[in-house]
Specification:
By secondary structure, this protein is of the alpha/beta class. The N terminus is likely disordered. The protein has an eleven-stranded mixed sheet with strand order 6-7-4-5-9-8-12-13-14-15-16, sandwiched between helices. A three-stranded antiparallel sheet has the order 3-11-10, with helices on one face. It is globular, with a radius of gyration of 20 Å. It has nine helices and 16 strands. The longest helix has 30 residues.
Amino acid sequence: MSASTPEPGSRRRGRTIAGLGIATALVTAATALTPATAESATRADTTAVTATPVTHAAKIGLTLPAPTGGQPIGTVALHLVDRSRPDPLMPVKPYRELMVSIWYPATGAAGLPPAPHMSRLAAADWDRNSAPQMSIKPGAVDWAATLTHARIGAPVDRKAGAYPIILFASGDGGPRTLGTALVEELASRGYIVVSVDHTYEADQVEFPGGRVERALPLPDKLTEEVIAELLRKHSRARLTDMSFVLDRLGGLSQGRNPDAHGTPLPAGLRESLNLSRIGMLGQSLAGSVAAQLAHDDRRVDAGVNLDGEYVGPIARTGLAKPFLQMASGSKTRQSEPTWKSFWSRSTGWKRELRFTGSQHGSFTDLQAVLPQLAGKLKDLPITELIGTIDPRRSIAAQRAYVTAFFDQHLKGRPTHLFDGPTPRYPEVKLVP
């Protein structure tokens, strides 16, 4: 995303970085950066903080759109620790730790509690530091009360055998929770989806025991060169994170519990991982990482980029594996050099879709959440964040195209959805 496209995020001391993925849209002209800059966001000061839950005098509750696949879903959150390397963003820490959530087709879920959209302390931090950058005052929304459609720890449905795996990550600065509407849809349609938080880069990550790690503060001087280097650094960290997660999934399939605390795993999860069919779905910076990971890691078969510019060598090398990129209404290969170079050098199956009337935040859960606040809160920059596209149709189209892509390339199910324009989704344009 370019500096001219603002994103949500937490702002402290006027620090911004041009284009970070979702958690932070609404970056102003505090830094005058050119459209060539990759991503932006503002960050709060932080290191580890033990958050105290706020008293929620929330007046507004929110819901997420139900998945349409028809399959009940379950989820489990895991704390992963990589002791083979120091933390790439916090080098004084001799190991890297991540939070991930695994989503999957489930059975026997009745009576089990639904998972929250955001964990309690992460929601409190989002309320204090991230939501205000979208002109949402602290305490106006009960973020912690929003529920997903997945049941915590439900047994995996084993009737279909092993399921293809999809890795998911939000854009730079965004927590893993902001792609839940798409993640749940994929799980309900027969995928195991692993959503990943990138610690010290995401606005907030809650770990077991009530510890919340916040994004590291940004440098005082944010030149284009500084921003570009930050994004390269974050991209490299994310790539190693994702390969590590795949390693842990391999261990899980062999009977090893990857959770640092030995959290019980859902029944049937070990036997349900199809490690020979793996894809990655990413928004903003994570879309670039999806392409780079597919290029670098032979285990990854296909990828999807939700409106992200390409960072690092993948923009120059392209990709020989199946890849889908989705664009907001203003993004074109002519206006975004990394899209043009990536596209021209990619030799695998490829398609590009443009969602008319959308914005960068349309490819996040903001598309589902913000319309529910319209008319209830004043001065919400809804158009700037999610555009003018009909939110329900945007979500339905994203779900349809992403699922069809992975069905074709991970399950071997041909589709005609990418052959040309379809009356089902007139808002979506296939870019030749």
